[in-house]
Amino acid sequence: MSPELKAEIDSVIANNKIVVFIKGTRQFPQCGFSNTVVQILNVMGVPFTDINILSDDRLRSGMKEYSQWPTFPQIYINGEFYGGCDIMIEAYQSGELKEQLEIALNS
Asked: Tell me, what CATH number does 33's domain have?
């Protein structure tokens, strides 16, 4: 990964409390997993930044290296990699996600 791309990703993650790297956009997710993550965050009513990894091949491949996570979506909360769709579903169902988001939004 180029230093420039790493700096761009670092900046987006550092400057936004909740960032989701998805296939498509929040208005038009282009895979079921991305749609699920967007729907969970919408139901919870939290503000989040969505990044369409399909619009930039360099970003798509770079994110896999950056996070050491091979699939999308990838969710970052408060500057930290949180996980993918399955982790979001489990955390949402257990109530852990609500706690994590409250901490992030109130920090």
From this structure: 3.40.30.10
